[in-house]
Design brief:
Layout: H1 2-30, H2 40-51, E1 59-60, H3 70-80, H4 92-103, H5 115-124, H6 131-147, H7 150-160, E2 162-164, E3 167-168, H8 170-178, H9 187-195, H10 210-228
Parallel strand pairs: 1-3
Antiparallel strand pairs: 2-3
Length: 240
């Protein structure tokens, strides 16, 4: 009896795993071509707004990568993930440094999340710091690195990331803070947007406070270094 029950449980778990794998691969392949108009985070933030009595506010407009300033592409790479073009989803050096800093008590353990990881989390998962969520994040990161190009990962990232309170994506945040299209952002404006990404509901890009101004200066400096060494983001959009 118990042996039969065990087999049934095993078959159920096996079928569930196969179904999840198939559905997740299908979803990743689908979003390789289809714009991402809504994410789980948008729905959660909207529910939080309604629950707290606030007016529902979701500012988001999908635009293609060629409608986003290369200044912003370069700014987010310099700010969030300087090895984006080289890695396969994970910056193991940054992860090692994070663990080492935490071990020495210099700071709490931070995520060291790459742009690929952040994209996987925003599009397919929920905001949570559990190890289970982190495991799914690793899984979906590997999937998008396998089925998407770096250009597509950056395009989805810049269209889905939370950039302010109820503000998602490059076009919406550009209109909100600078009253212009995302393709028209200057280097300093792009750096200001990138500067608030670690905590976009706490910090504002315009007018920037002392912390954001300091981050802007650092990001612009990193952008100039990459341009001066020829390591610019333009390689992302070069013709094959």
């Amino acid at each position: 009896m118990s042996n039969t029950l065990g087999k049934k449980i095993f078959r159920f778990l096996w079928k569930s795993a196969v179904a999840f794998a198939g559905l997740s691969v299908f979803s990743v392949i689908l979003f390789r071509f289809v714009p991402v108009y809504f994410t789980p985070l948008m729905l959660i933030r909207g529910a939080e707004q309604l629950a707290s009595g606030e007016t529902l506010q979701i500012k988001h407009r999908w635009v293609s990568l060629d409608e986003i300033s290369k200044n912003l592409m370069l700014a987010v790479v310099c700010s969030e993930d300087q090895t984006f073009l080289e890695h396969f989803g994970f910056d193991f050096k940054a992860i090692e440094q994070s663990f080492e800093a935490s071990r020495r008590g210099k700071q709490r353990l931070r995520g060291a999340s790459t742009i690929s990881q952040q994209t996987a989390k925003n599009v397919f998962l929920w905001p949570n710091r559990s190890w289970i969520r982190k495991g799914f994040e690793v899984y979906f990161t590997l999937l998008i690195e396998t089925f998407w190009s770096k250009e597509r990962i950056l395009e989805v990232y810049l269209n889905s990331i939370e950039m302010g309170n109820g503000i998602y994506g490059a076009e919406a945040v550009s209109q909100f803070y600078f009253k212009k299209r995302a393709k028209d952002l200057t280097a300093t404006q792009a750096a200001a947007i990138a500067a608030v990404l670690p905590n976009p509901r706490r910090y504002v890009a315009n007018p920037p406070g002392p912390h954001v101004r300091s981050r802007i200066r650092w990001i612009v400096g990193q952008m100039n270094k990459r341009v001066n060494t020829g390591a610019s983001i333009s390689s992302l959009t070069a013709d094959d």
